[in-house]
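Sharing a chain and its predicted structure for anyone who wants a worked example. Both blocks are below, sequence first, tokens second.
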Amino acid sequence: MALLAAGCARGAAQPPVEPQPAAETGTAPAAAEDSTSAGVDGTAYYVDTAQSQASYAVDETFLGQRLDVTAVGRTSALSGAIVLQDGVIQPSTVEVDLTTLRSDQSRRDNQVQRVLDTKNHPRAVFRIEGAEGDPVLTEGDEVPIRLKGTMTIKGVDRPLTFEGTAKLADGVLTLTAEARFAMTDFGVNPPNIANFVAVEDEVKVAVTFVGQRQG
């Protein structure tokens, strides 16, 4: 999923505008499939960008006052797959193209690209180790899940846990999960423009992963 900062908002924030998908819809290309599932036993569910999404949410402060303004950015440019073996999540990798994050303000989006240094680090990568307790996904049942793994943002690796639910039905894996962390843990400095508009350090990342079984 991962993402992560906000720039100067003009007055009170407006409801975020849904961006157009930044990548072609459909499942990940074959080259991505091979690298994701190489050496892993099980069934891979490749991301369907038409139905998947990653988003960030951060609180903004104006003149040192919290005004309940939350900036939100989104993208559908996910890639990778989640692998299941006998219904249990196996080591897997999911990536997000940070260059495609969009909110309701272009000035904010420019700040996001700057602080994330997307020219040099265009992707956030979540390497899933597995799900806590190894819950078994059975056909049609929604299961609470805690995905544990390593997140890489701006070239910095940190352990991270996503909490949410997972459901397997008719060859489709649907997983929705959220995580919270401090931007500074990944070497990302929250923007502060002349102490007029600043961004809180904590960021919430939400991911909806819809994966299709192939073959």
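Comments welcome. The helical segments are 30-37, 106-116.
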